[in-house]
Every structure is written in structure tokens, then in C-alpha cells.
Amino acid sequence: MKRELKKFEKFTEKGKETVAEICKVAARIFDEKGYLAATLGDVAQAAGMTKGGVFHYFSKKEELLFLILYRYIDCTLRALKKKLEVCGTPYDRIYVFIHHHLQNYEKNQAESRLALLERANLPSNYLGIIKDMEREYREILRSLVKPLMEGRRKSYRKVMLATYALLGMVTLPYVWFDPDGKAKPKELGDLIYEIYLGGLGCAKPLKGSQCRRNLIA
Questions:
Q1: Per-residue pLDDT tens for 78-134?
Q2: Can you tell me whether residue 49 is helix, strand or coil?
Q3: What is the dihedral of CA 29, 34, 36, 37, to 10 degrees?
């Protein structure tokens, strides 16, 4: 257990539930006000707690941002791995990844934007942990992209470029796409899938296996 997280493991189950609630409220406040402008007092007020109550769990704002991002990335990594375990073809796997990424944004919009826009405000020890988790996520994606490029001239560099290209396609919507608007995440995900595979020269019919339909339902 990383020393930055040991403190939170010592809390009772009720304490852990309170921490989770504070993280959820704080993510919304940091997203609405901007991390630098928001205070722990703002978080306490929004959570219906005293400032001292929040300080009982978090001694500083950086600690709270770190735990928000850690919990968010850890949850999406666990869920993604579970979905991919039952996927067969490379096309199923890339399709599931795209929709998982967008569904994760739909369910955790504030946390997603914080991970993209505010993580640089973390101190180096916290930021290093988050970067390690992001690296694991990218490596999973690279392992999904590589089979799509089999049979054509490729290098590690080209696979990584293709990996980052897809990551950009599914992450940039955090700043412009409204999941509650007329276009839904599934529609966007299907379009990204078609454009991306078409760009790699390996487009497949969108209608796929039962695996795909089950995992994005």
C-alpha cells in the first residue's frame, strides 16, 4: 500500500463512506469553480459539513484532489480489465474500450475533466502515482491497438502514435461533448470506432458479436 493511501485505509467503514461522499462533492465543486479557486470551505459547505469535519479526513486540498483522481482511475482500470476478459476479437476489444471510456465520462463527468485539466496541480509525489496509473491504462490500449496493425509495416513508434491518436479521440470530448445532449455517448462511440478503424485501413462492420452488445449495454 502506497504511503499516500495508508491514511485512508485506517478509517472505519463509515469513515470510508464519508471520504467517498466528500470526494464526490469536491469533484463537482473543483469542476465548477476551478481547482485553484475552490477551497476546502467550499467543499464543506456543499457537503453539509463543518470545515473541521473535512479537515478530519483531508489535511490539505492537494490530498483531496489526489484521492479523487486515484479513486476515479483505479475504478475505470478495474472495470475495463473485467470487460476485456470476456472479449474475443481485436475488433470487439477496441470497440469495448472506446465505449467504456465514453461511458466512464458520462457517469463521472467532473472527475474526468479534473483528470484531464487539473492533475498538473498535484505535488510531484501524488502526480507520480497518477501518471503510473495513466501509463497502465495507455499500455492496455496499446495492447489492443497492436493486433489491429498486424500484417502491415509497423514499429513500436507507429503503434504508440496510433494508440495516442485513439486516446485523443475519446478524451477530447471531455471538453465539448454533452452526454445529456441530442447525441448520445453510444452514437459518438460508434462514430469514433468507424473513423478510427477506417483510418487504420481495417474497418469492420459495426454490428458485432454478442460480447460487444453485452459489454456496452
A1: 999 999 998 888 899 999 999 999 999 999 999 999 999 999 999 999 999 999 999
A2: coil
A3: -70
Domains and CATH numbers, the chain: 3-215 (1.10.357.10)
> Amino acid identity of 27?
A
Q: Please state the three-class secondary structure of 91-158 as a single string.
A: HHHHHHHHHHHHHHHHHCHHHHHHHHHCHHHCCHHHHHHHHHHHHHHHHHHHHHHHHHCCCCCCCHHH
Q: Which three cell numbers stand for residue 99?
A: 465505449
The end-to-end CA distance of the chain, in Å, is 34
